[in-house]
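Note to self: keep these together.
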Amino acid sequence: MNAFPPPYTAVDDVVDALRTRGCAVLSPTSLSVICGLDLEALEAWRPGWDDLPPDAYLKDGGRYRRRRHSCFVQAGHRLTQVPHRAHWQSEDYNALHGGMHRWFDPMEPALLETPAWSTLVTGLGDVFSQVRDAGGDWHVEAHQFRIDTTDGIGRPTPEGAHRDGVDFVAVLLVGRSGIKGGETRVFEAEGPAGQRFTLTEPWAALLLDDHRVIHESTPIQPVDKAGHRDTLVLTYRAGAFQGED
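Structure:
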């Protein structure tokens, strides 16, 4: 597989990178250090990506995406799951699927009740609070994704290069198997600069200031018969979930 290696950010430089460039890329070890996590605890989650329900909302008619979705509020170091709710985005941020109340199956308690879950989510939230004061609680949406090659090609971002309509985004690679492609591309929202790289290590993480940059991932194709790419995407928005304000 031809791939551009990720430009990993040193732990001590993560906050500054987000402030100045709107983007930081964490190695698995750096993610562990920043959040105070044992990577073995994250590895124990991986089987949960094997039974994700199909995404029934794909407007391109594809069958290549499976997902679960749950929502939380982070107040200080406390994380609380909120009643299950629809995922909603404005058409300003998602021209393909915006304006729809999309009800996905919730994430499984077997994952969410592990101590590592709140440690991960609040640890990243603490990083984002150092970058920009939220002025209140973080409203966090969590998405488990599997993009596979059922249709011969899988599209991690069928909406194209986009912002998510939040304050910060974390994209964690859970794993990839039997595929090529899936290159990450990050661009200044209002400028010419950009970078491209391919996340290949499980639990490497891309952190984004959604006000500053747009992002996308290129389609995946099977190397042989079939393959997939699994990710965990966390979005952080101050004050309210999208559609509530």
